[in-house]
Amino acid sequence: MIKKYITLSLLILLSLNYTLAQGNYGVIFPKSESERNRACRNCFSVFQQKPKEVNFTIKNDNGNLYFHTNDKSWFNSLFKSDTDGIAIDVVSKDMYDCTIETIKPDQIRGELLRPVYASRLKSGLKSIGENSYRVLVGKLPDNLKNKELEYNMLFLGNKTLCRYQIIYDIKAYKWDLLDMGMYLDSISFKNEKVADIEDESFQIKYKTLRFKIPFEKNKTQYSSADIKPVYDSLNLTNFNIKTINIKAYSSIEGGLERNIELQQERANSIAKAIQSYQKPNIKTTISSSENWVEFLNDIEGTKYENLKALSKSELKSKLVGAFSQDMEPYLKNHRKAIITLELERKDIYKAKSTTELVGLFNSSIKDGKLDEAAQIQNSIFEKLKNKEVSPNILKNMEIPAQLKFIDFLNNNSATKYLLDQKQLIIVRNELEALKKLEAKNPKVRYNLVALKFLIWRHNIEPVNDDTFKSEIYALKSFGIDQQLIDRMMINYHIIKSEKYMRERDYKNKDKSVNYITNAYKKVSLSDFDYFSLAQYLVYYANTDKAAELLTKKARSIDVDEDLLFYYLNLTLTDNELTKTDAYRAIMLNAINLNSKRYCKIFNAVENGGVTFQLLANDYLRRSYCESCTN
After folding, report:
1. β-strands 182-183, 187-192 pairing
2. Listed residue (317, 202, 338, 184) closest to 266, CA to CA
3. Where does the secretion signal sit in this chain (predicted)?
4. What are 268-324's pLDDT values in tens digits?
5. Which residue, among 57, 279, 25, 32, has the nearest Cα to 151 in the 3D structure?
6. CATH level 3 topology of 203-345
7. What b/e sequence results for 240-259 when a residue is b if at least 16 CB atoms lie within 10 Å of its CB, and e otherwise?
8. How far is 258 from 584, CA to CA, in rounded Å?
9. Nearest-5° angle of CA 303, CA 288, CA 339?
10. Phi, psi (rounded to 5 degrees) for 304
11. Cα angle 600-604-609, degrees, rounded to a multiple of 5
């Protein structure tokens, strides 16, 4: 399925000191809370009652600045009297230059544009799509047009500043369903990757092995004893190693270049040793970095905890000589490689042509050699997965519609769907016919329910919600694993929440979201699942829950890069959190993984950043200036 991408505007309300005198196009800056409360009663009420699903932002369209929102009724209620309005504060990134020693907080950060009041706002609001509206609120001054800019909003009540708002944008994805796969001999999944890329092929996941190998200081080569635990765990009688993923980590003392060089040599020696174990070439991925996150995690609560306050360069300068030896009990645990091996079944029919394979399969079925037929069918599926043959090959496989062949028929139908989801209804009808052959076949039952989710979500046919829920739970009686059922129930509530959202039934939508945030703990989730779940929560304005979900993952050394940076996007505006030592470890982890991506966070929204106004935070600014200005 093609994922839909949207951009949500997440809002930060700044706590301001209202001390400026009147001025600035007649905008009143109240001198007391009582003055502010009298003038802003309607503004405060409307924001207090604003559903969290309502969002708004400012966008620059060729120098014209537009206020965008997804809720016309909320917009109209905000501007009740003629003196209620909006003014834009245009802020330039150059005010946060690293050569400036201190940044003085001010109520107006940049250049204030002339306010626009209720009459013009309401008459100028235009629909630009389903639940999407915009109105012109200002034009960019010529002196700012070549600068990196952001646009803060002043919400005015009775010409008085009621609310100063910074907008920062997080790219959020409308979460697709948790991948349920299709039941062949085992569950087969789409090949999903976090972020924008989606491979439309499918993969049959047979076996994954994971190892951790420690290193001695300055050692790069492996003895046979080093790699023996890997060899001993590999039962490769029926499997080949398909891929090797090696994440190599050095301890933080010493020069960065030498540390990365050591890790590359170590990782290459591992890959070479494993490749020698089989003839087929193994696709190998290697990454290297210094292990800052575990160092900072490990010294937490110890007598060395004060080291966390130092910059990276300051810390490295201390970790020499005798002090480095004192720290060795910690550092020795940080030199290691984490190895993930993906295995696939050996294919004795791999060299056969398509014609030969189909002929052998049909003969095996006819002669009742079902074990042999199963191996040939899997060989054909591998060729289909790798796009070596056309899906039309499935039509040439002669399988009688008899009970003893039901697994073969199910496998062909499921594979047909995995190759082309447009075959959804055709495959559903084939599986319904198989259910008549064997009503209690668990694979057929599972696949029918998995397909029904898509029929329901895309309104292809009517689906009764309650009846469908009963069908999902009934899978337990057919021997389907409870974790698979739990995943399906998460998907059930994803679809329910989408339907409630369209109906603006926010109360029941929240019930479904709460079900999901409780249920995910019951199931085994990949990093991709965690990432998707966080995106889903943000889409439904549950940013705090999304951050909570990812916190533990973000502190692990082998965290997925996309997941880590999404966590940063969700949390960088929390000034209290970013001051903590634990958060510093997370930021250093991100810098080590991808420093360019980390620095891009502090670009303007229009240049793909979260917001450069994060640099008003002294702690974040020090991190940025240390890592992003060389």
Report:
1. antiparallel
2. 338
3. 1-21
4. 888 887 887 777 788 888 888 888 889 988 998 899 998 888 888 888 899 999 999
5. 57
6. 60s Ribosomal Protein L30; Chain: A; (3.30.1330)
7. bbbebbbbbbbbbbbeeeeb
8. 24
9. 95
10. -100, 10
11. 40
